[in-house]
Write a structure and sequence with these properties.
With 217 residues, the protein is mostly helical. It has 9 helices and no strands. Helix 4 crosses helix 5, helix 6 runs antiparallel to helix 7 and helix 7 packs antiparallel against helix 9.
């Protein structure tokens, strides 16, 4: 089969627009998922059993529902009532879905702090909230930042599913070009390379930040 890579050069602006949309939606979804996941993670380790139960239901439900199904449901059901539109439906779906994984990252970070430190804080007269604010959370933060950054990379790959609700991201650009040019091999190969360059570049930045963070501490 003959290969015609000119189609890539001719449609490069479309690919770059898809990359911008992919990164924008992923970043916005991360901003949604961090507060949701942080609250859920704190609830997972709370002393209140009802709070732990609510957080557990949220985490288990959204980790068990396929992202594709969630995006379609939010767009066609929830989005109709709230008039979200494709853009905000995609951000909402990705944010809620990713928040369940962020919650587990936060929970693991808090539980990784040695129990002796929290016991010492309580013995010194601190309240539970003071102990969490001044002793546990500052230490947990250092441990959750690397996996939190990695979650952004996962979001970028997951965002390829938003094309099913008419978001013109990188995947949608590729689908449209394949439908009009019939050059599926060249277009999907280039699309895969773009995703790889984005995720690999971010992973290298994260690794550099992790090394600098360890040196500073």
């Amino acid at each position: 089969m003959d290969m015609n890579w000119a189609v890539i050069y001719q449609n490069l602006p479309l690919f770059m627009g898809g990359v911008r949309m992919t990164l924008t939606i992923s970043f916005m979804a991360l901003l949604v998922s961090i507060p949701i996941g942080t609250v859920a993670g704190l609830m997972r380790v709370a002393r209140s059993r009802p709070l732990r139960a609510v957080a557990a239901v949220y985490v288990e439900f959204f980790r068990g529902v396929p992202l594709l199904v969630l995006l379609i449901w939010i767009f066609f059901v929830l989005g109709r009532f709230m008039r979200l539109g494709p853009y905000w439906s995609a951000i909402t779906g990705l944010g809620i879905f990713s928040g369940a994984f962020v919650a587990e990252i936060v929970r693991a970070g808090i539980q990784s702090v040695p129990r002796g430190q929290s016991e010492a804080a309580r013995a010194s007269g601190m309240t539970y909230f003071q102990m969490m604010r001044y002793v546990v959370l500052p230490q947990a933060l250092r441990k959750v930042l690397p996996p939190m950054a990695s979650q952004f990379i996962i979001l970028i790959k997951d965002s390829s599913l938003v094309s099913v609700i008419s978001i013109v991201d990188l995947s949608m650009v590729a689908k449209n070009l394949v439908a009009t040019t019939f050059r599926s091999i060249e277009i999907w190969t280039f699309t895969a390379l773009l995703y790889f360059c984005i995720t690999y570049g971010l992973s290298q930045v994260i690794a550099l930040c992790e090394r600098k963070f360890r040196m500073d501490h």
